[in-house]
Amino acid sequence: MNISKFPLAKYIDTLLDFLTDHLAWFTKGISEVMSTGMDYAVDALLALPSWLFILIVAALAYKVVGKRMALGTLLGLCFLENLHLWVPTIETLVLVLIATIVAVAIGIPLGILAAIFDGAHRVIMPLLDFMQTMPAFVYLIPAIPFFGLGPVAAIFSTVIFAMPPAIRLTSLGIRQVPADLVEAADAYGCDRRQKLLKLQLPIALPTIMAGVNQTIMLALSMVVIAAMIGAGGLGGEVWKAIQRLQPGKGFEAGIGIVILAMILDRFTSKVGRGKVAE
Amino acid sequence: MDSSPEKIVPKMQVRNLYKVFGSAPDEAIEMLKQGAAKDEILEKTRQSVGLADVSFDVYDGEILVIMGLSGSGKSTLVRCLNRLIEPTSGTITIDDCDITRLNSEGLRNLRRKKFGMVFQHFALFPHRTVQENAEFGLDVQGMEAGERAEKAREALKQVGLEGWEDSYPDQLSGGMQQRVGLARGLAVDPDILLMDEAFSALDPLIRRDMQHELVELQDKFKKTIIFITHDLDEALEIGDRIILMKDGHIVQLGTAEEILTQPANEYVSRFVESVDMTKILTASAVMVRAKTVAYPKDGLHTMLRKMRDVGISSIFVVNRDKTLRGLVTAQACNDALKSGTKTIDDILVEDLPTTTPDEPVTNLIGRMAEANMPLPVVSVDGKLHGVVVRGSLLAGIADGGFDPEVAMENCSDEVAQ
Q: In this predicted structure, what is the pLDDT of residue A111?
C-alpha cells in the first residue's frame, strides 16, 4: 500500500498564487484606498478630545438604552482613557465598524437571496458551514499576499469570519415569516419586491438585527486575532504583551476589548428589540 | 340543478376544475373521470385529489357559501379561484377573462383589482397599525397615500372600528382583529370577496354578531362574497346559495331551503339531520348576551335604572372581570329603598341555578320550564358568558341552530314579566 499524498496544499497554493499574480494590482489598490480612509476615520475620531467623545457616546447610550447603560459606558470609557489605551481603542472601534459594515452590506443581500431562492440556499449554507468551522487563523495567511500586512488584510479576514451570522439570520428571519401572512400578501397581489419590503424585511428585522449583533461580536474577536498580521489597536497591545511576556499589560488591553464588546453589544441588541416593541 | 336567484350572466364561471396534488396528475384525472374514488386513486397512483370536476357559477351580489368538512376541498377550491393554488385543469372565467391563462403579471393585477380575501386566522400584519393593515391592498395597488388613507378609514368605519386606527392588531380582541381583516378586504372595493373560514376562530356569540353584520354589509353594498365554512348553521345563516362539498366533489348546490328540504343524497341528509338534534346543541348555542349587568359598586338606583332601560325585572351582578356574583330583582330593590337600605348585600341572591356553556340543550328544557328567571351560563372559572331564556331556548331548538334576532325579541318579553 503506497498511495502518494494528495497534494491539496500545493493545489491551493497554486490557485492562490495565480489569483495573487492576476488580482494583486486590484486588491492592493483597494488596500491603499481603504487604509487611507481608515487613517482619516481614526484621525477624525482622535481629533475630538477624549472626554468629549466619551460624553457623546454616554449621551447616545442614555438616549438609546437607558440610565444604567449610560453610566456603565461613561465609567468603562473613562477607565480605558485612564489606562492610556485610548488610541488603540479607537483604532479597534474603527476596524470593527468598517468590517461590520462591509460584512452586513454583503451578508444581508446574500441572506435575502438564500431566503427567496432555494437554489441559493443550497449553495450558500454549506459555504457558511465551511467558513465558520475553518479555524480563523487560516484566513490570515492568504489575506497578506492580497492586501499586504496591515489593517486592510485584517478587515478582509474579519469580514469573512464575521459575515456568516448576518447571512444566516437574515435568511432565517425571512423564512420564519408566518406562511399565512405571506399568503395574505400574495392574495392582495404583492410582487416580490413589495412582499420583501412591506412584509418580510419588517417582520424579520429583529432576527436580522440579532445577526448584525453577532457579526459585531465576531468581528471584535477576529480583530484581536488579526493583530498577528498588523491590525493594531487593542489586539495589537495584547499581541505585544504576549511577545514580551507582560501578563499585566495583556490583561489591561483584554479588559479594554471586553468593555468595548459590552458597549457595542448593548447598543445593537437594544436597536433590534426596540423596533419590535414599538 | 340550477338554482340561481335570477337568470343573469354570472360574475364568475367555474368549469370542470380539477386539482391533483402530486407529480403525475394526468393519470389521476383520468381515473376520476372514470369514477374512481379519492382513496383508491391515492393508493394506486400516490396522487392526492383536491378537487374533482367542480363547476358552478357565482352571481353578482350574492353570498355563495362553500361548505364541507375538513378535507372536503373547500379551502383548496377558494385558493384556486385566485390561483394561490394552481388548478390542475379547468377554467375560471371572470368577466369574460379566463384567469387560468393569465401570466404572473396579469394574475397580480387580477388579485389587486378583483379580489379581497379574509382569512381564518386573520393574517393581519403585526408591524402595521389597524389603519395600515386596512390600507394594505391599496398600498400594493400603488394608490397615493392620502387617498388610500381616506378609503381605509371608510372601510374601518363600515366594520365599526372607528377610533382604533392607530392601534396594533395584537392590542385587539379576536373579533376586532377579524373586523380589521374584513376592512382590509373591503377597502380595495373588490368585485369578489373571498372569506376562508373567516369566523371559525371566533367565540360563538361574537361569531353570530359577525355573521349578522356581514349580511347587513352585503345588503348595503351588494358585494359578491364567496364564504367558506365547515359549519352548516353558519352556511344556512348567511348563504344565499350553498355548495356542499365532499372529497373534492360538489355534492349539492342550492339554497338553504333546498338543501334542508330536498337533500341530494344520503350524505347531505345525514348532514342536515344533525341540525335538528337538540343533543348536539349546547347552552352556548342558544344563549344570548345578558342585555345589561350590574356591578357590585352600583347603587340600588343605578340598578333599577339599568333594569328599566332595557325592560327587565331582574339583573345579574358581576365583578369587573365578569365573575358572576348573584342576582338582584327589581322587587327587592324597591323594597330595600323603601326600608332605607343602601347596599345590595342584603338583597343579592347568591345561590343561583347556573349552567355551563357545553351543557346539552336537552338537559336545559326541563329546568327552563320551571324557572321564571333567565338561566345564567357560567364557565368553569365562574365568568358569566350569557343567559338562556325560554325564548332563546325555543328559538334555538326550532331553528336547529340559532336566530339571535328572534331570540332577542322573545326574551325581552319574557324577562320583563
A: 95
| Nearest residue in chain B measured CA to CA from A178 | B123
Q: Do A188 and B109 touch (CB under 8 A)?
A: no
What is the structure's pLDDT at B204? 82
Burial environment of residue A272 by CB neighbours within 10 A (0 to 12, 13 to 18, 19 or more): middle
User: Does the beta carbon of B59 lie under 8 angstroms from any beta carbon of chain A?
Assistant: no
Q: Where are the domains of chain B?
A: 12-276, 283-415
pLDDT of residue B153: 92
Helices (H), chain A: 8-47, 50-64, 67-82, 86-116, 118-133, 136-147, 151-175, 179-187, 192-194, 201-225, 233-244, 247-277
Cβ–Cβ under 8 Å, residues A204 and A176: yes
CATH number, domain with residue A136 = 1.10.3720.10
For the B12-276 domain, the top CATH level (class) is: alpha beta
Chain A contact for B29 (CB, 8 A cutoff): no
Classify residue B197 as left (phi > 0), alpha (psi -120 to 50) or beta: left
Q: Domain span at residue A203?
A: 9-47+83-277
Contact A184 B112 (CB under 8 A): no
Q: Record the cell numbers describing residue B217, joined without a space.
A: 354589509
Q: At the topology level of CATH, where does B283-415 sit?
A: CBS-domain (3.10.580)
Q: Is A186 within 8 Å of B111 when comparing Cβ atoms?
A: yes
Number of domains in chain A: 1
**B384: contact with A, CB 8 A cutoff:** no
Distance CA B312, CA B376 (A): 15
pLDDT tens-digit series, residues A49-77: 989 999 999 999 998 888 898 999 999 99
How many Å lie between the alpha carbon of B170 and the closest alpha carbon of chain A?
12
To probe the interface with B, which of A174, A188, A194, A199 has the most B CB atoms within 10 Å?
A: A188
Q: pLDDT digit string (tens) for B147-187?
A: 999 999 999 998 888 889 999 999 998 889 999 999 999 99
Q: How far apart are CA B352 and CA B323, in angstroms?
A: 13
Q: Is A203–B126 a contact, with Cβ atoms under 8 angstroms apart?
A: yes
- pTM of the predicted model as reported, rounded to 2 decimal places: 0.72
| Mean pLDDT value across residues A223-233 | 85
> Over the stretch B3-61, which tens digit does the pLDDT of each residue have?
445 567 888 999 999 999 888 888 888 888 888 888 888 888 888 888 988 999 999 98
- Cβ distance of B117 and A188 shorter than 8 Å: yes
> Is A125 within 8 Å of A165 (Cβ atoms)?
no
Convert the pLDDT of each residue in B218-256 to its tens digit: 888 888 999 999 888 888 888 889 999 988 889 899 887
